[in-house]
Amino acid sequence: MALRDALLPEFEHEMATTRKTLERVPEEKVAWKPHATSMSLGRLAGHLAEMAGFVASTFQGDSFDFAPPGAQPVQPTTMTSRTQLLELFDKNVASAKAAISKASDEELYKTWTLLNGGKTFFAMPRIQVLRSMILNHMIHHRGQLSVYLRMNQVPVPSIYGPSGDEGRM
């Protein structure tokens, strides 16, 4: 079995659950933070939406620089509306699925490098980038988002089983 055939169902499952969570983000609370050092609700939701797009970027060359010397750094996404958020997420998930669907095992084992200001942040095989730095990272932030929702009295969707708000057995 090709690695992509094992990755794709897991990716699709996690993205469907992530979308359910993003659908609940209240537009009127985008500036809300649980703590002064925390990301705002709108920035956290935007980060989840943009992260799905990092998959396709991982296959568009051997490296990516968030702040290339002599050029503008990548601007982080902050949610401005639920429509904007979900459109970005859906577009990024579609491009990610297309990239994974075409990936050969050879491409997945090839080293990919993330740079910041021309300096290596990390270098690892693409499959590790996909699983650790993107998918697991997104799952982590989805967990944060579910706590943000709970703290704002927004019902948390079922993620890996019933939540306290829906799907009780």
Note the beta-strand portion: 5-15%
End-to-end Cα distance, whole Å, is 36 Å
Overall strand count: 3
Largest sheet: 3 strands, mixed
List the helices and strands and how they pair.
Elements (H helix, E strand, L loop, with lengths): L2 H20 L18 H11 L2 H5 L4 E3 L16 H21 L2 H5 L1 E6 L2 E7 H26 L18
Parallel strand pairs: 1-2
Antiparallel strand pairs: 2-3
Helix pairs in contact: 1-4, 1-6, 2-4, 2-6
Q: What's the quick description here?
A:
The protein is mainly α and 169 residues long.
Description:
- By secondary structure, the protein is mainly alpha-helical.
- The chain has a domain at 3-27 and 39-63 and 85-105 and 127-151.
- The chain contains 6 helices and 3 strands.
- A 3-stranded mixed sheet has the order 1-2-3.
- α1 packs parallel to α6 (126-151).
Question: Which characteristics define this entry?
Answer:
about 10% strand; single chain; about 170 residues; globular; about 50% helix; 3 strands; 6 helices; mainly alpha
